[in-house]
Amino acid sequence: MLKIGLILFGGGLGTLARYVMSKRIYIFVNEIFPWGTLVINLCGSFLIGFFYEIFDINIVSVEIRNFIMIGFLGAFTTFSTFTLESFNLFREGEYKFFVTNILLSNILGIICVFFGFYSAKFFFRVIK
Questions:
Q1: Residue 14 lies in a domain
Q2: For residue 1, is pLDDT > 90?
Q3: Distance CA 77, CA 44 (A)
Q4: Number of independent structural domains in the chain
Q5: Are 110 and 42 spatial neighbours (Cβ–Cβ below 8 Å)?
Q6: CA-to-CA distance for 21 and 55, rounded, in angstroms?
Q7: pLDDT at residue 127 tops 80
C-alpha cells in the first residue's frame, strides 16, 4: 500500500509541476508551437537519465525509485500530450511545426537523457 501511495503522491506532484511549468512557459512564447510540452519533455528526459544513473550507483529504496521514476516523472513528462499536439499540428496543416516538434522532441530528448546520465556520473565523482 505504501508503494501505491508514494506513486500516487509523486504523480500528483509531477502533474502539478507540469501544469505550472507549462503555463509559465506559454506566458513568454506563442501558442502555435507546443513549447511548454517540448521543454517539459526535455527536462523530463534529462531527469530520467540523471536519476537512472543515480539509482544504479547508489542504494536507494524501491519506494523512492517508484516515487520519482514512476510517480513524479511519469506524470511530469507529457508524451501523450506531445503526440496529440503533433497530430493537431498535422491536422491543421502546420506541417513545418509538425515535423519540427517531432524532430526536436525526439532528438533533443535522447540527447538530454545522455546528458542527464553523464551529469550524474560527473556529479558523483566530484562529491566523492
A1: yes
A2: no
A3: 5
A4: 1
A5: no
A6: 26
A7: no
